[in-house]
């Protein structure tokens, strides 16, 4: 992996963020109704409106507004919330931290469950265990987050009363209570991930188990376990890295729904609140930060993939 | 076509998927006729009824029959999702084919931009678009179509690149056909099969996305019996009557499972390698 490749990937991340910023700005700022009218109401006087427009920079051309906004973003200044009057950046970054914690727990749970499930299914291909994993993963990928959330709340919070249904307690304040509040959201998000990744691990491993080098290792008389873990699994897991990175996109979408349902104050919930109150700077900041998270995740996955797979030569 | 059908039926998931999707289409077409009650007639004395011989799936907070609402809502949920997917697929197919046809720098530029757009999670992009257009079923449909376009463009391009190298395309270029003719008449028809597979799987995702938008209050509006909206409305009464929220949730999952199975069955049937 050459430095030129890494540089090229970094340039691509930059281009991605530029395109995303254009789209987000276009969707939120240019087309909807006048932001000044939205803030002051339909009955505001013309003078008050034009004064506010001048103050917010809305009287400038669209490109000037975009340039101004982008320059601010590059300095880390995402503007001031139209709802609270607070700077948007710090609020969103703090919310992102809570969402990343949720995502991190979900990914860990996913890896702990999806890898064994996929391996079992591949090794026992065509048998009951395989069928069972396959059925579970079909159901898993077909449940939208709001349905999974409903089911886990009905069973674990409502019926068995083991866990709180909604709310959030910072881990730093009360670790035990904080974790209890995280269980249901993490469970909800990981269902789709587990279903998806276990299927990928299974199909990759089935392919690898049919390759010549695995057959050679077996014929050499190596124990089954050695062949599976030392020879087959390593290569089967490589594509999984890319799948996990792509799933970060689903994960971020899922985070929006899950945080809304479980009243978890992460970036997804901030976005929903911002959308409902038409708070443009918050919407823009939230969307941009989410897209940036995804772009960086897939960048890291590409680098990891290139480092781990010596067969791939990037130029 | 018959041969394809036979091959789909040969795999268990294909056969099951075909049956489920057939059932779903039957409900979509016949739903309003076989529904035992009017989905919007209020019955204050029959509120929160558990499933019974009279109301097979129980009643909701206004005494409306849940089974009838689900049967009517199939159109609002499934048909919209299918339309959204078809629209997004068409737009993506055109972009992907053009990109593959142009090749070189234009292809690179188009695909990098498509990748960039895909950095925005589909749900977030759909949310932003609905927020811009205003909340309604049709705007949710449009939003999902736009959110699906980049992904479909990517899939179509990779298929089209393979087609691009075929002799008949080179022959058309040698004949001096216009670019528009080559893209529409020579290339698009040959990229259709793999795209239909991708589309079937995406219908499952569209159903989930559409229901999620309605669930968040940005898609179908009350008193529509769209399933995601029904789940959202039933949330307040979850402790009182769990089945109110259970049935529409399961309906969404059922449709998604059906299309996922059918999509995988189709993929296996079209892919000679497996």
Structure description:
The complex is a heterodimer of chains A (315) and B (274). Chain A has 315 residues and is an all-alpha fold. Helix content of chain A is 77%, strand content 0%. Chain A has one domain (88-308): MetI-like fold, CATH 1.10.3720.10. Chain A has helices at 3-30, 35-40, 46-56, 62-74, 88-123, 128-141, 145-159, 175-209, 212-219, 224-261, 267-276, 280-308. The longest helix of chain A is centred in the last third of the chain and has 38 residues, at 224-261. The mean pLDDT of chain A is 82. Chain B is an all-alpha fold. Helices cover 75% and strands 0% of the residues of chain B. Chain B has 10 helices and no strands. Chain B is elongated, with a radius of gyration of 22 Å. The two termini of chain B are 19 Å apart. The A-B interface holds A 12, 15-20, 23-24, 27-28, 31-32, 138-139, 141-147, 150-151, 153-154, 158, 249-250, 252-254, 256-257, 260, 271-272, 275, 278, 283, 287, 290-292, 294-295, 298 and B 13, 112-113, 115-124, 127-129, 131-132, 204, 208-209, 211-212, 215-216, 228, 231-232, 235, 238-239, 242, 245-246, 249-250, 252-253, 256-257, 260-261.
Number of strands of chain A: 0
Biggest sheet layout of chain B: none
Question: What is the 3D shape of chain B?
Answer: elongated
Largest sheet features of chain A:
none
Outline type of chain A: globular
Which architecture of chain A would the CATH scheme give at its second level? Orthogonal Bundle
- Level of helix content of chain B? over 70%
Query: What is the chain-wise order of helices and strands of chain A?
Result: HHHHHHHHHHHH
- Helix share of residues of chain A? over 70%
Question: Which chains have the largest interface?
Answer: A-B, 47 and 42 residues
- Class per helix and strand makeup of chain A: mainly alpha
Order of helices and strands of chain B: HHHHHHHHHH
- Give the C-alpha Rg of chain A: 24 Å
Keywords (chain A): Cell membrane, Membrane, Transmembrane, Transmembrane helix, Transport
Domain ABC transmembrane type-1 (chain A): 96-301
Transmembrane segments (chain A): 12-31, 100-123, 135-157, 177-195, 236-263, 283-305
Membrane topology (chain A): Multi-pass membrane protein
């Amino acid at each position: 992996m050459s430095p030129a490749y890494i540089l090229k990937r970094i340039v691509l991340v930059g281009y991605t963020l530029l395109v995303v910023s254009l789209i987000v700005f276009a969707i939120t700022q240019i087309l909807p109704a006048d932001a000044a009218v939205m803030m002051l109401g339909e009955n505001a006087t013309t003078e008050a409106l034009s004064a506010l427009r001048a103050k917010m920079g809305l009287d400038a051309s669209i490109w000037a507004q975009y340039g101004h906004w982008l320059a601010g973003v590059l300095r880390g200044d995402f503007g001031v919330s139209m709802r609270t009057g607070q700077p948007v950046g710090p609020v969103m970054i703090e919310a992102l931290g809570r969402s990343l914690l949720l995502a991190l727990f979900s990914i860990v749970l996913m890896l702990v469950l999806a890898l064994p499930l996929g391996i079992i299914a591949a090794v026992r291909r065509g048998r009951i265990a395989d069928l069972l994993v396959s059925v579970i993963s079909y159901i898993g990928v077909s449940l939208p987050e709001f349905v999974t959330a409903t089911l886990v709340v009905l069973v674990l919070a409502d019926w068995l009363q083991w866990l709180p249904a909604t709310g959030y307690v910072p881990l730093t304040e009360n670790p035990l209570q904080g974790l209890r509040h995280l269980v249901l959201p993490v469970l909800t998000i990981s269902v789709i991930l587990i279903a998806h990744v276990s299927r990928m691990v299974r199909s990759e491993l089935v392919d690898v188990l049919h390759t010549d080098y695995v057959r050679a290792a077996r014929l050499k008389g190596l124990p089954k376990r050695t062949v599976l873990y030392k020879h087959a699994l390593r290569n089967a897991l490589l594509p999984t890295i890319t799948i996990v990175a792509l799933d970060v996109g689903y994960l971020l979408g899922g985070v929006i729904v899950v945080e809304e349902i479980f009243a978890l104050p992460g970036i997804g919930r901030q976005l929903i609140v911002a959308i409902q109150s038409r708070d443009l700077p918050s919407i823009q900041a939230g969307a941009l930060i989410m897209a940036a998270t995804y772009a960086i995740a897939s960048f890291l996955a590409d680098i990891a993939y290139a480092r781990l797979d010596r067969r791939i030569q990037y130029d | 076509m018959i041969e394809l059908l036979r091959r789909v039926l040969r795999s268990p998931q294909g056969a099951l998927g075909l049956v489920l999707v057939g059932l779903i289409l039957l409900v979509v077409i016949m739903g309003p006729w076989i529904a035992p009650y009017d989905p919007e007639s209020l019955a204050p004395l029959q509120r929160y009824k558990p499933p019974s011989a009279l109301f097979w799936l129980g009643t909701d907070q206004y005494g409306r029959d849940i089974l009838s609402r689900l049967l009517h809502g199939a159109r609002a949920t499934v048909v919209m999702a299918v339309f959204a997917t078809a629209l997004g697929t068409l737009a993506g197919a055109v972009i992907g084919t053009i990109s593959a046809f142009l090749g070189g720098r234009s292809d690179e530029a188009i695909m990098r931009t498509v990748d960039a757009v895909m950095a925005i999670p589909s749900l977030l992009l759909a949310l932003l678009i609905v927020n811009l257009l205003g909340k309604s079923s049709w705007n949710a449909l449009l939003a999902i179509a736009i959110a699906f376009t980049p992904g479909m463009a990517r899939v179509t391009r990779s298929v089209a690149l393979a087609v691009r190298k075929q002799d008949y395309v080179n022959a058309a270029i040698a004949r001096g056909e216009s670019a528009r003719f080559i893209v529409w008449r020579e290339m698009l028809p040959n990229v259709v099969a793999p795209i239909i597979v991708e589309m079937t799987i995406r219908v499952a995702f569209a159903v989930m996305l559409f229901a999620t938008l309605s669930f968040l209050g940005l898609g179908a509006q009350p008193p529509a019996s769209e399933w995601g909206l029904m789940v959202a409305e039933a949330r307040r009464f979850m402790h009182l009557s769990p089945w109110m929220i259970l049935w529409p949730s399961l309906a969404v999952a059922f449709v998604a499972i059906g299309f996922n199975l059918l999509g995988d069955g189709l993929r296996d049937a079209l892919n000679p390698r497996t």
